Amino acid sequence: MPDAPAPARLTLGGDLAVNRLGFGAMRITSPGIWGPPADEAAAIALLRRVVERGVNFIDTADSYGPGVSERLIAEALHPYPSGLVIATKGGLLRPGPDRWVADCRPEHLRQVCEDSLKRLRLDRIDLYQLHAVDHRVPIEESVGALRELQRQGKIRHLGVSNVSGPELARARQAADIVSVQNHYNLTDRSSDTLVDACAAAGIAFIPWYPLAAGRLTRHESALAQIAERHRATPAQIALAWLLHRSPTTLPIPGTTSIAHFEENLAAAAIRLDADELRQLAR
Fold this sequence. Notes:
single chain, TIM Barrel, two-stranded antiparallel ribbon, alpha/beta, 11 strands, 7-stranded parallel β-sheet
């Protein structure tokens, strides 16, 4: 969208209006995404600042901690302000730090959804996402279990994560899918076709790892030049590119620092022109 700001908001599932720069709450845990943070008070202060600054989409998962991120979100923000959308995920087991094992059996998904409801102190989760594809279980069975929880009123909308195009198509046969969360950033564009497919279908595309942990070397020169022009940081330009990439992208940069969060948030105001977008598309 050259010479104009990227759309500031999108609507999930036809009824949840969210600002297009969200917050990923994975890193408010300890290294390895395992255990509580060293300073829980700082994590709680960060979450409160996120909401104070108008971010109304927070992404988490039962496996972050495990359970830690959801618990801290509830401690910081419950009772939740009107309009705040908390999205969580289920389908990954955590045998230890930095270890992730898919378990998308229907019985497991039913249990972890109940656990997330309790930790988040919710009667219904606005967006519940299948965190992975478990190749031992047909995706239709996993999504079908979530669809049943949706019928029971425990889930408002459903999403999927870490899927291929054919897997998304199969999931959409089993339920109404309103979001896809895949690895995507300037450096890794393996989900390019899914980004476009989601835009065409009105499905939110939530790029995780949106800044590649700062390792955006493929576009280092272009980012530096464009950042200097905008008096911004290269990371801010990378986030602005994601917002311009498609009207349904919903980046969720995460951090443990209020200052870093404020820097990320400022990216939403950056306008990239056609020439800059061409440079970054190379």
